Amino acid sequence: MIRIESGRVEVDGGHLHYEKSGAGPFVLLLHGFGVDRRSWYDQFEPFAERYTVVACDLRGFGLASMPNGPYRHHADVACLIDHFEVAKVSLVGSSMGARVALDFAIAYPERTRVVVSADGVPSGFVFDRPIGTPRGPSREQFMQTLSNLSPERAANFKAIVADYTRWHRKNEDPRVEVDPLAITRLGQVLAPTLVIVGDDDLPDYHKAADMFCAAIPDSRRHVIPGVGHLPNLEAPEEFNRAVLAFLDINHQQPTSE
């Protein structure tokens, strides 16, 4: 059983909540929309065997504070790693978390060691869906994810989603992203980048994966067959193998961390 430390980090106008374990180079897990740090339960222990791993609740989710004015997820991440006195971080982001990771890599290239995008899109990406569609995964995506989970994982996933306050669907989100938006600046992502996409995810996410691999200089794609939008939950063993192998390769050289 691994030892898990939990805590709170103050950010501009709010706070984040985190869980931390392990030792070694710093890896930050960034969750998707409508879920929270608990969506990484299949990654936390395997990653902590090799790395210092932190899973945080981004502002507006889990135990983090709700937005109360303009905020920047990527700036919040910078506050988080400052709290741990970390010079460089490897970022593993799922869906919305990947969007945050890419914004961070553009805003803070000198602090970014590795980026992993799992079914993410860049800020500025326009989805092919009707105007007025609520933000976040649709019911169809939710049901597809559930169909790929074991009963235990499905129960955990339902509990996480049930805890989401739906704040972003009841309020105007004052989130601010990098300027100019990442979609026009992907060539500025200098960190080695692994682009993971579920084979059965929606076409928009495959389109975004194509964009990443075409524009990010040091990028590679990994398609996980038979899964949809949340491969870290739907195929955790394959996801963990791919991500840990990529992290291991890119942490072989000593750094000033």
Oligomeric description of these chains:
single chain
> Biggest sheet: strands, sense, closure?
8 strands, mixed
Helicity, in percent? 25-40%
CATH topology: Rossmann fold
User: In what order do the strands lie side by side in the largest sheet?
Assistant: 1-2-4-3-5-6-7-8
CATH architecture: 3-Layer(aba) Sandwich
Identify low-pLDDT runs: none
Query: With helices defined by DSSP (H or I, 4 residues minimum), what is the helix count?
Result: 9
User: Structural class given helices, strands, pairing?
Assistant: alpha/beta
Strand content: 15-25%
Radius of gyration over C-alpha positions, nearest whole angstrom:
17 Å
CATH homology superfamily name: Alpha/Beta hydrolase fold, catalytic domain
CATH class: Alpha Beta
Chain-wise SSE layout:
Blueprint: E1 5-11, E2 14-21, E3 26-30, H1 41-48, E4 52-57, H2 73-83, E5 89-94, H3 96-107, E6 112-118, H4 139-147, H5 151-163, H6 167-170, E7 193-198, H7 203-215, E8 219-224, H8 231-234, H9 236-249
Parallel strand pairs: 3-4, 3-5, 5-6, 6-7, 7-8
Antiparallel strand pairs: 1-2, 2-4
Explain how this protein is built:
This protein has 257 residues and is α/β, with parallel strands linked by helices. The protein has one domain: Rossmann fold (3-Layer(aba) Sandwich). 34% of the residues lie in helices and 20% in strands. The chain contains nine helices and eight strands. Strands 1-2-4-3-5-6-7-8 form an eight-stranded mixed sheet, sandwiched between helices. α1 runs parallel beside α9. The longest helix has 14 residues, at 236-249.
